[in-house]
Amino acid sequence: MEPQPPAAEPQAVPPAYRLHPPTGVTWATALGGFAAGGILLGFNYWKWRQKAAAATVVAAGFVAFSVVAWLALITPASVPAVVFLVPQLLVGYFVAKWLQGRRFDAHVAAGGGKISSGVGAAIGLGFGALMLGAFAIWFLSTGINPKALLDTQESVDFGHGQHVFYSRGASREAAQDFGEALTRGRYFDGTVATEVWIAGQPGKREISFVGAEGAWDDPVNVDYMHELTEYIVADIGGKPVTVLLLDERLYEKKRCRLDTAWTCSPNP
């Protein structure tokens, strides 16, 4: 009987699927937030037939995305965007390595393919654009004056929902003085959420108040605004001062000016 050659060991079959690498997850997170990074991690878990883990990381990504978006909204405009970008980059990378790094390396060692990090970046960019578009649609649906976004970045909180927003050259100290004067004048009385605005510097000061529908055409209300302005004008830099009466969507309805006299346009 002739000797037989030893049986060949079975060759391992490389995985037939490709996975997103940690660098791709990082780029997706940088450009599309934690939600985009979570989607890529979820894709990998799905390929590994771990559907519960996939759903968990995607949900966690959207929760983290919502938290960061909320922080971005309440953070003053003076805070640079890098404050949010760098932590997202680091967290996205290290979470991807912690959750999937070893398994991804084993996948590649077994001959499995990986998806280009550029694809992850494109997914992040696309998701970010989608979220911005959704926000733009929502904002336009509210009918709020877009210019108001620029003037509502910095504020002083006087409690009970009472805020003084300052912009266009007005300082935080001016906003503080304005709010304190409104408190003494009982405009800020702690009973209702109220927002006012102050802009410009003394000599070109501009203050804004929001009124209910038609309040700008009510002579009694316009006279009250005149009296209130006379009361507080010394605390905000003196005359002249421009007073804007806004509707609830922050569009200007009447413009008054206190100098040697009180004049309004259009007239009440």
UniProtKB/TrEMBL annotation:
Q: Which domain of life is it from?
A: Bacteria
Sequence intervals crossing the membrane: 25-46, 53-73, 79-99, 119-140
- Which keywords describe this protein according to UniProt? Membrane, Transmembrane, Transmembrane helix
User: Does this entry carry the keyword Transmembrane helix?
Assistant: yes
Q: Transmembrane helix among the record's keywords? A: yes
State the name under which the record lists this protein. Uncharacterized protein
